[in-house]
């Protein structure tokens, strides 16, 4: 279980996260929703240990950093490194030995080609494959469905179900409500750095409605389209 | 189009400021440096007018950004797009043209100008994406990437080693060994993205040891052919080659620890000066390496546990 207690994060005087209190149990899928700039990625980076913060993040299995598989929104790839070498690098980093990467290539990626030449969706799939091979207990997936084709979306959904079965903790963000409906057990609405609401599956619609009614129409009107 | 060039000027100033130079000072210094460099070139090189002309044309050809051009093409009118590309290229070529005119090489200046216009209308060939195999695939990434970018330099180093035997010059052989370590040091000149450090299940000490061990193994593999070549003629002097290899190895290790000691800044001018000082006075590495090793360890503490 991961417990977040009174987490604050600020850059200079700009407060990005305020008094975040959340808990994630094993075998649960949690979705974090919110507008761009609400603090989702910062929260993920704090949980993973890439950002310093005020407050407490506790993990009952010890050091959380080495149990997390982190999928960034836009994974960065070095130039002149192949897909296979990227997988090798991420496995080496966690001391995982894999003999045949071809067998693990569930998204049929061209592993012998340079990763920098991959499309947005292919890059995401490569980064996801890598963290799946690391045998992590916790998965933080920032926009896992972004730019990914329908077929791969189905695979990702099934992978998430499998991870849930295996008692892994999964925290993800997405702007596509239908995918969150399908995959998540809980949703947390992050607004301006604070958790506005946390709901279980039965109340997902209320969050969707709340986001829809937060002045979207008025904003569109300001464009004077037409 | 006017706004485009105003933004270009603003961006240039921002880059100069990021680099730590006040734009006004840069605009005074850069032309002076260019004049000094060009004059030295004309003083020291044979047929300088032809080579200088070639350098001007190649500069315009190389410094092109297809993605930038594509963006401009998408959003500007076709005539404006063409004008922007031509003006950008002329701005690049103008220092070379002016210097050629100053030296009264009018024909050469005209050729640079003509070629600049011509280059503006041809499409830059796409990136060459053939995957080059590397012997370092087991432990990516520095040597995998570095080898693919600099493999031709190793061929040159091996060539120099062969020449050292042909011309009976052992020093040239030593130079080829040192060149390998120097090239490998350059693989550690850019800071790693945070993510690529964070992923490691190691403490800072283990991480640095791991990086040093991989670099040492792979650089020794790269110098091995030179040792073989040199042993043909200089078997009795191989101990000297080993001493210089050890120094080369220390030099590369110094760059690794400096890289992580300046995690956010990257290997900049200050670190470059340290590198040059250690070439001139190698014993300094005995102080520099431990100092930056501990600094690197402290830096990595926030990302590795």
TrEMBL record, chain A:
Gene3D superfamilies: P-loop containing nucleotide triphosphate hydrolases (3.40.50.300)
PROSITE patterns membership: ABC_TRANSPORTER_2 (PS50893)
Alphabetical UniProt keywords: ATP-binding, Nucleotide-binding, Transport
Organism for this UniProt entry: Aquimarina algiphila
Residue ranges annotated for the ABC transporter domain, each copy included: 2-217
Official protein name in the record: ATP-binding cassette domain-containing protein
Domain of life: Bacteria
Keyword Nucleotide-binding attached: yes
Source organism phylogeny: Bacteria, Pseudomonadati, Bacteroidota, Flavobacteriia, Flavobacteriales
CDD domains: ABC_DR_subfamily_A (cd03230)
SUPFAM superfamilies found in the cross-reference section: P-loop containing nucleoside triphosphate hydrolases
Automatic annotation (TrEMBL), chain B:
Keywords: Membrane, Transmembrane, Transmembrane helix
Official protein name in the record: Uncharacterized protein
Signal peptide (residue range): none
Domain of life (superkingdom): Bacteria
Transmembrane region(s): 20-37, 49-65, 77-98, 143-164, 170-188, 218-235, 241-262, 274-294
Transmembrane helix in keyword set: yes
């Amino acid at each position: 279980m991961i417990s977040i207690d009174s987490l604050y994060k600020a850059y200079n005087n700009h407060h990005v996260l305020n008094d975040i209190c959340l808990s994630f149990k094993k075998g649960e899928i949690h979705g974090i929703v919110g507008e761009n700039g609400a603090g989702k990625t910062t929260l993920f980076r704090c949980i993973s240990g890439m950002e310093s913060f005020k407050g407490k993040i506790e993990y009952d299995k010890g050091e959380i950093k080495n149990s997390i598989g982190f999928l960034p929104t836009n994974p960065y790839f070095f130039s002149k490194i192949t897909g296979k070498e990227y997988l090798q690098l991420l496995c080496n980093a966690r001391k995982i030995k894999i003999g045949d990467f071809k067998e693990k290539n569930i998204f049929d990626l061209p592993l012998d080609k340079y990763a920098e030449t991959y499309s947005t969706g292919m890059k995401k799939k490569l980064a996801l494959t890598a963290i799946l091979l690391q045998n992590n207990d916790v998965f933080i997936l920032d926009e896992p469905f972004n730019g990914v084709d329908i077929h791969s979306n189905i695979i990702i959904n099934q992978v998430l179900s499998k991870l849930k079965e295996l008692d892994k903790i999964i925290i993800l963000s997405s702007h596509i409500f239908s995918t969150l409906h399908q995959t998540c057990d809980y949703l947390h609405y992050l607004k301006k750095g604070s958790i506005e609401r946390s709901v279980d599956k039965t109340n997902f619609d209320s969050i969707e409605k709340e986001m829809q009614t937060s002045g979207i129409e008025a904003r569109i009107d300001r464009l004077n389209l037409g | 189009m006017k706004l485009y060039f105003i933004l270009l000027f603003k961006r240039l100033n921002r880059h100069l400021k990021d680099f730590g130079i006040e734009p006004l000072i840069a605009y005074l210094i850069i032309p002076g440096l260019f004049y000094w460099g060009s004059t030295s070139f004309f003083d020291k090189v044979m047929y300088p007018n032809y080579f200088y002309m070639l350098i001007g044309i190649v500069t315009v050809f190389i410094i092109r950004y297809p993605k930038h051009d594509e963006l401009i093409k998408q959003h500007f009118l076709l005539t404006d797009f063409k004008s922007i590309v031509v003006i950008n290229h002329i701005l690049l070529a103008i220092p070379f043209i002016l210097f050629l005119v100053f030296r009264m090489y009018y024909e050469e200046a005209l050729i640079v100008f003509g070629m600049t216009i011509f280059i503006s209308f041809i499409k830059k060939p796409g990136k060459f994406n053939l995957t080059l195999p590397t012997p370092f695939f087991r432990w990516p990434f520095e040597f995998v990437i570095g080898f693919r970018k600099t493999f031709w330099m190793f061929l040159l180093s091996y060539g120099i080693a062969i020449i050292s035997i042909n011309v009976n010059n052992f020093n040239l052989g030593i130079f080829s060994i040192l060149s390998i370590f120097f090239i490998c040091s350059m693989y550690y000149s850019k800071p790693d993205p945070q993510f690529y450090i964070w992923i490691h299940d190691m403490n800072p000490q283990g991480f640095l040891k791991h990086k040093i061990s991989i670099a040492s193994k792979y650089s020794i593999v790269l110098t091995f052919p030179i040792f073989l070549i040199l042993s043909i003629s200089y078997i009795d002097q191989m101990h000297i080659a080993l001493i210089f290899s050890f120094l080369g190895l220390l030099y590369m290790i110094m760059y690794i620890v400096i890289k992580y000691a300046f995690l956010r800044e990257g290997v900049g001018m200050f670190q470059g000066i340290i590198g040059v000082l250690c070439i001139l006075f190698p014993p300094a590495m005995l102080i520099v390496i431990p100092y930056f090793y501990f600094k690197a360890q402290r830096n990595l503490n926030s990302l590795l546990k």
